[in-house]
């Protein structure tokens, strides 16, 4: 993603929060999901970095950031 690009939501329409408040579909926290529409582009990019880290650390692999 280039810095000028508007960050897209990582939502994959698999919405279920696990016991750690992480969505099993997009790897965002419940708070990140609820605040996404009000986040600046920079905040969204920061969140996407966290999403990628959570996804990589999980035992499940998807294509959220490909």
TrEMBL record:
Family annotation (InterPro entries): DUF1289 (IPR010710)
Pfam families in the record: DUF1289 (PF06945)
Superkingdom of this protein's organism: Bacteria
Name of this protein: DUF1289 domain-containing protein
């Amino acid at each position: 993603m280039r810095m000028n690009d508007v960050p897209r939501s990582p939502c994959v329409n698999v919405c279920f929060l696990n016991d750690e408040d992480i969505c099993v579909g997009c790897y965002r926290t419940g708070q990140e999901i609820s605040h996404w529409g009000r986040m600046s582009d920079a905040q969204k990019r920061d969140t996407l970095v966290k999403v990628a880290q959570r996804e990589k650390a999980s035992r499940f692999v998807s294509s959220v950031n490909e």
